[in-house]
Amino acid sequence: MENHNFEHEGQFHREMNWRQLQMLSIGGVIGTGIFLSSGYTVAQAGPFGAIASYLFGGVMVYLVMFSLGELSVAMPVTGSFHTYVARFISPGTGFMVAWMYWLCWVVALASQFIGAAQLMQRWFPHVPIWIFATIFAAIVFGLNTLTIGLFSKAETYLSSIKVYAILAFIVLGLLAIFGILPYEGYSKAPLFSNLTTNGLLPNGVVGLVSVMLAVNYAFSGVEMIGIAAGETDNPKKAVPQAIKSTIGLLVVFFALTMLVLASLLPMNEAGVTEAPFVLIFDKMGVPFAADIMNVIILTAILSASNSGLYAASRMLWSLANEGTVSPSLVKINKKGVPMRAMLLSMAAIVIALIASIYAADTIFLALVSIAGFAVVVVWLAIPLAQINFRKQFLKDHRLDELDYKTPFSPVLPWITTILLAISIIDIAWDPSQRPGLYFGIPFMMICYVYHYWRFKKW
């Protein structure tokens, strides 16, 4: 299935292999969510609760990717789930999902550029934040203007750095847990006693539920496998391989990382004021721990931002290609880059960046709330689209004609849908996350109303 509705406006280049597709997805996922926000998860849910929440989040994303895998292999298009949702649920829902996902990355990139600038102030405390934020934005934009082949190679190198960093953290952390390496505050092996020091769930079920939105947000980006399917060299082979290897790697990495963090980081020391990785490396006696982690986190932010701008520009291109926004954004240059869609996405990121500095408690709070809420809504639409796709497909085809099948369909997709719906309801339990509902639901309604007003269909 090719969804290039404007052939004279250029074509994407199918130059990405499964390994590069995998690293693009990993690049979008492994960012501030694990390097910085993981401390917040331990503080809120407790050590055991933090591990449980990330395991549950990993299972959730695995289930979602089963459905997206079937759709992406059957119809490898740039824009992915927005196109599937519009076709197999409703045009209005596809329109809403695309805008929520686009906004999610716009807000994420603004936050990441600010985060990178703040980290740089460790070494250059007198340089204004906006200067470093601008430099990082320019680097990310420059990388995205490369051909998809060069872009994916650059992203593979950037993603590899943080993968090796996390692997080193896991290995050193396990050695400290079993007493092979010294650890401050312990004369013998800490083992896993810290997991139950404050009880399994010190803040109860509410504490566990309250971190699920943050955990889901930490896993966001893995769906990029579907978005990039239209730019892979062999989607039928690349997409299934990328899904299997990426999800398995991420679940193992996140689970083992949280096991080390939760075992070595006391609940009363966890938070978001200092990177939990730095605290643990310091207690291991690793020299220059803070500086080393600063470099790694900066690389992680650059990689996640690189993937994020890619996703935002392709989603905006897909909206234009479907005729729901200006067709002028469909233009693809000779390098296979939708430059106009990228420029508009970058302009929105700059606006969000300014809002994060000058209107953090008003405009930017609303944008962040919608972004966190959007992740779960986007994931929720994917299994629903797969259920309807399978029904339509089987009217004229046999099941064995599908190169990639969602196991136990439609039971598993329905279970996925129910769990994600519960995750949305759970948002109401935590006062700090309720703005996601207050701003997210009205934003959804505005998208639906506009689409009906403009195109006379829901």
UniProtKB/TrEMBL annotation:
<feature type="transmembrane region" description="Helical">
    <location>
        <begin position="48"/>
        <end position="73"/>
    </location>
</feature>
<keyword id="KW-0472">Membrane</keyword>
<feature type="transmembrane region" description="Helical">
    <location>
        <begin position="129"/>
        <end position="151"/>
    </location>
</feature>
<feature type="transmembrane region" description="Helical">
    <location>
        <begin position="435"/>
        <end position="453"/>
    </location>
</feature>
<feature type="transmembrane region" description="Helical">
    <location>
        <begin position="341"/>
        <end position="360"/>
    </location>
</feature>
<feature type="transmembrane region" description="Helical">
    <location>
        <begin position="285"/>
        <end position="305"/>
    </location>
</feature>
<protein>
    <submittedName>
        <fullName>Amino acid permease</fullName>
    </submittedName>
</protein>
<feature type="domain" description="Amino acid permease/ SLC12A">
    <location>
        <begin position="21"/>
        <end position="458"/>
    </location>
</feature>
<feature type="transmembrane region" description="Helical">
    <location>
        <begin position="247"/>
        <end position="265"/>
    </location>
</feature>
<feature type="transmembrane region" description="Helical">
    <location>
        <begin position="408"/>
        <end position="429"/>
    </location>
</feature>
<keyword id="KW-0812">Transmembrane</keyword>
<dbReference type="InterPro" id="IPR004841">
    <property type="entry name" value="AA-permease/SLC12A_dom"/>
</dbReference>
<feature type="transmembrane region" description="Helical">
    <location>
        <begin position="366"/>
        <end position="387"/>
    </location>
</feature>
<dbReference type="InterPro" id="IPR004840">
    <property type="entry name" value="Amino_acid_permease_CS"/>
</dbReference>
<feature type="transmembrane region" description="Helical">
    <location>
        <begin position="94"/>
        <end position="117"/>
    </location>
</feature>
<feature type="transmembrane region" description="Helical">
    <location>
        <begin position="163"/>
        <end position="183"/>
    </location>
</feature>
<feature type="transmembrane region" description="Helical">
    <location>
        <begin position="21"/>
        <end position="42"/>
    </location>
</feature>
<keyword id="KW-0029">Amino-acid transport</keyword>
<keyword id="KW-1133">Transmembrane helix</keyword>
<keyword id="KW-0813">Transport</keyword>
<feature type="transmembrane region" description="Helical">
    <location>
        <begin position="203"/>
        <end position="226"/>
    </location>
</feature>
<dbReference type="Pfam" id="PF00324">
    <property type="entry name" value="AA_permease"/>
</dbReference>
